[in-house]
Amino acid sequence: MKRIVVVGGGAGGLELVAQLSRYCRKHTAVEMILVDKVRTHVWKPLLHEVAAGIIDKNSDGVDYRIHASRLKYEFQQGTLKGIDEQNKSIALDALHDEEGELILPERTIEYDILVLAIGSVSNDFGTPGVKDNSYFLDSLVQAERFHRALLNQMLRVNQPNTQQSMLKVSIVGAGATGTELAAQLHHVANLSRAYGMPAMSAQRLEISIIEAGPRILPALPERIAYAAKSALQKIGVKLYEDTKVIRAEKNGFVTADDELIEADLMVWAAGVKAPNLIKELDMFETNRAQQVLVDAQLRAKNHQDIYVLGDCCAFQQEDGTWVPPRAQSAHQMASTVYKNIVNQLQGKEFEDYKYSDYGSLVHLSKYSTVGSLMGNLSNSSMFVEGKLARLVYTSLYSMHQFAVHGWLKATLTMLSRRVSKFVGPKLKLH
Hints:
FAD/NAD(P)-binding domain, 3 domains, five-stranded parallel sheet, 35% helix, NADH dehydrogenase, FAD/NAD-bd_sf, flavoprotein, NADH dehydrogenase activity
């Protein structure tokens, strides 16, 4: 019996598990185990919507145990603690509940093939005060924590005769997460008036985005950044470009010019890196972002039975650039790793990974969606915005649903989601 263990049920990890589980059902000599530290999967590009309260895990999440039961693989909840390559096993930390009571002891799981898909976390670059005073949006738990804080702050502002006349939110990092969150928060502030907070509105919300680089969306084409900037400024978002944050205090971010940008809620969304666990394992070659260096077949360098995919994977292309940590990268990596694992099991030749950039899209709530689509026959890109861009943006999530659930289940899930959005509340209030 060959055992494949996938650690991390994010976009790439869960898609890979879905593909491999179908293979395992036809080949009984192969079994699949997925390990993740939480019980529910939410597509990471949607976490800012969870934070704003536009969606919740009950309607847009995937319960790993239910998914495992349907696709006939095993799910183990736990946090990776170590890898024993000599004995081909991984160690998981003990699992405790919120009161500290033991649920599961430390465990070891043997593997024949191991896949690391543990994603990424925000990089605070060691900036003083950030960890203690800021919210991060790296996980479902963090997104829900921010949402609870947002509701509390809106309730304070909504109360009559309150001393807090404005709700100030400051976001460090003007990438996709920061800009999309800002637009969603503006939308939510207006929605809240219809859900028991009549004194709250976007007019009582002050949003600031702070970017160290010369412009917002630095990783995307300039035309997309300009269109997004115009849309954000139109709804009153304050943009601080070329502004470096040197520390975070309880009441706001302090810039290199010693200016305090006040905030009731502070979000850090600047830069990503692989989790510190990668460095702590002290067994992989890594780059500056702590990502694991891989060969052409997405195997960790000098580790033939360990594959790496997604945000924690460092794949350097022929032109010297690194494959960016995006959902489309994880999707493509999952496909290549699946093929290579099957080839390994069947004694066939491996396939090299090649990244294809299909473009970038930024969805600014109901206000605007802008992006570029890469041409199939050339390296040129086509600028898109409005309804077409929104349709393409939605289709990206649909592709993920199809990969995770299959066509029939995904179609029914998406129909259910549309019905729920039509008849249900537009804002999550718990």
